[in-house]
Amino acid sequence: MSYRCTICDGSFTEIPEDALEITGGRGYRSRHPALFRFSDGTVHALRKVPVKKQQPQEPSPEPKENSELLLEANVLAELPTPPTQPVPQPEPKTEPLPPIEPDIEETSISAMRLAWQQRSSK
User: Fold this and answer.
1) Can you give the pLDDT at residue 49?
2) pLDDT on residue 105
3) What is the mean pLDDT of each run of 10 residues along the chain (122 residues)?
């Protein structure tokens, strides 16, 4: 197990036996590092650094050719292509739309418009 100091970014393989623990790290998976005072007077906040285990990588096997798929691809390649004929598009009908007249009566006034009219008349 190795340790990293969050104060000085130093790396330590082990904590010296004569180091005095000032505050604990509150468990193995704690976010708070453990604070130690070493015999030379330095203070370090040490956090455990997990050692990454390297697993040997197995070489990837060579891809095998599937002869059935290759035969199907060859058969499809030999098929004649159908003739391409343009598809007739229907012409869109354009008819003028009738004009729309608003159904707003000038005699009806909203409460907001009435308030603005009264305010501007003062």
Assistant:
1) 83
2) 61
3) 87 88 71 86 87 74 72 76 79 83 70 87 73
The Cα 31–Cα 28 span in angstroms is 9
Residue holding tokens 């007249």?
101
Q: What is the DSSP letter of 54?
A: P
C-alpha separations of 116 from 48, 109, 119 in Å? 71, 11, 5
CA 120 to chain centre: 55
- Three-state DSSP class for 99? coil
Residues near 37 by beta carbon (within 8 Å), at least 6 away in sequence: 19, 20, 22, 43
pTM over 0.85: no
Q: How far apart are CA 13 and CA 53, in angstroms?
A: 16
